[in-house]
Each structure stands twice: as C-alpha cells, then as structure tokens.
Amino acid sequence: MKIAVLGAGAMGSIFGGHLAEAGEDVILLDIWREHVEAINSRGLHITGVSGDRYIRVRATTDAKDVGTADLVILAVKAYDTKDAITKFRSIFTPDTILLTIQNGLIDIKMLEQLSGTSHVLVGVTGQGATVLGPGEVYHAGRGKTVVGDPHGGITKEVKYIVEILNKANLEAEASPDVQGVVWTKLMANVGINPVTALTRLRNGEIIENPGTRAIMEMAVREAYEVAKTLKIKLLVDDPVAYVIDIAKKTATNKSSMLQDVERQRPTEIDVINGAVVRIGKQVGFSVTVNEILTNLIKGLERSYLKK
C-alpha cells in the first residue's frame, strides 16, 4: 500500500515517520521546501517520548513524485484543507482511502467532493508533537488514535487502517460511532483553546482563575447542548468536568491555538467554536459565548494577519 501524508507538520511527521519505520511505503507531501529538503538529505529527526532517531522517509513538494496513493493521511491545518487537496488532487483516485486526523469538525462532504473519493475516514488522535525546525519534530506525548467511518459502523477500511497503525506502534482502535469521539474531543478544544489564546495563559492557569474558568465552562455547556440536540452521544457524562480534568493534566501546556496566536498564524477557530456557532444556529440553539469567543479570536487574527 502506498501511503501519502498530506501535510508533513508535527502530526503528519509523527504518523508518516512511524509508518515508514514499520516498513510501509510512505511519502510526505508539504509545501515547506526547507522541511522537505532536510528530510530528504538527512532523514526525519524525531525526538521525545518515542526515542531519538533519524527515519529515512521520502518527502516532496510535487504531486508528480507520488503518482496515486492507496491511502492519504490528511494532516494539514483545517484552514488549509481546500488548497492542499486541490494542489495535490492528482494523488487521489476513486478508490483512495482518505483518513483525516485534523482538529475540529471537518466537513466530510467537502472532503469527498474535493478528493473525488467516497472512502473518507475520521481519526481522532491523542498523539502530541511540535515541529522544532526543518526536518526536526519533537514527539511530546503518546495517545490513542480512534478511527471510524463518519457514517457509522466499522468497515473493512477502518479495520485495515487500525491494523497498520498498530503495527507502526501508533496505538489505534476502531469506533462504530466516531462522531461521538470527535465531539468529545471538541468539548476540550472549545473550552480551552480560545480562552488560552485570548489570555495567553497556559491550560492549567485558566481553571485557577474564576473568570476564565467560568467562560470556559459556559462555552463547553453550549457545545454540549448543541451535541445533545444533534443526538450525539459523548464518551463522557459530564463534559465540563472532563474539560477541567484535561486542563489539569495538561496544566503546563500551551494550547495549539495559543501557539498559533504567538506565532501570528491563522487559527482553527472556524472548525472549533465557529463550528459550534454555525451548527447551533442551524438547530436553533443559543451559542452566545461561543460566538463571542469566535469573534474575539477572528479580531485578534486580523490584528496581526493584516500586517
């Protein structure tokens, strides 16, 4: 099976590196030329919880070097999805399996239309990683990856992907209800990401301050009500307590959205709180706190992106 990892950032590199290390035919695709050149010249350097080593894996900025892929792992930022698939459209066939491991609520129909394949799977991963520089990735933490068909059930494609991920030491399991998994993770992102990005506080600090904790809890409760309206079954009974627990366990971490703001990059607010706002309005549920947080982050983005 030929595997193309579309987006060789932190998460794409961890998945691509482990799969290549396990003997799979892997090629990394990215528009960051210095990163690609460093990987091709000396290997992908991964440090952290999975060890310190250089992994030989091919990387390219050109879709022609791939041909077509049997499996595409989509690991670009959500806001780059359309441009990335359009640029590398030739690697897809109608039989290609597309596995998204992106954050937030991703539009599955959009992925099907852009890629031309109906074999779209969703992966929710607990792996943690950071790009340190060209060809250099720090594996910050291990976590389970749950894979499922967005339409429900456990298909043969889901079983196969779980099998190759486990062989690559990327702990994985299949879920018959991956939407519940996606929405459960969304609760944490909804509560932690925008509040930390706006205040510049680390995860644990926002629950120590009564004001920021209250805002976080209100955002999560709104998202939970939207999920209930959609009849989404979460993996937890009390999402607020779940998010507080995550903030405690990752107390010293900077959220991905805070990192984006500090680096003056676009954020993924549109597929996190913004998605809750969009869906909440569609089902007629008030999402005032999430709308305020979304608008504040969009305003903050504008303050540096316009430069």
State the CATH class of the largest domain.
Answer: Alpha Beta
Distance between the termini: 44 Å
Outline the biggest β-sheet: 8 strands, mixed
CATH-derived architecture of the largest domain: 3-Layer(aba) Sandwich
CATH homology group of the largest domain = NAD(P)-binding Rossmann-like Domain
Determine the strand fraction and express it as a percent band: 15-25%
Key features of this structure:
18% strand; 2 domains; four-stranded mixed β-sheet; eight-stranded mixed β-sheet; 12 helices; N-(1-d-carboxylethyl)-l-norvaline Dehydrogenase, domain 2; 307 residues; alpha/beta; 12 strands
Report on this model:
It is a single chain. The protein folds into two domains: 2-176, 3-Layer(aba) Sandwich (Rossmann fold), CATH 3.40.50.720; 179-305, N-(1-d-carboxylethyl)-l-norvaline Dehydrogenase, domain 2 (Orthogonal Bundle). The strands form two sheets. Strands 5-2-1-6-7-8-11-12 form an eight-stranded mixed β-sheet, sandwiched between helices. The protein has a four-stranded mixed β-sheet with strand order 4-3-10-9. The chain has helices at residues 10-21, 33-42, 81-87, 108-115, 156-167, 178-199, 203-208, 210-229, 239-249, 256-262, 273-282, 288-305, and strands at 2-6, 25-29, 44-48, 53-55, 58-60, 71-74, 97-100, 119-125, 128-133, 136-141, 145-148, 172-174. With 307 residues, it is of the alpha/beta class. 47% of the residues lie in helices and 18% in strands. The chain contains twelve helices and twelve strands. α6 (178-199) packs antiparallel against α8 (210-229) and α6 crosses α12. The protein is globular. The chain starts with a strand and ends with a helix.
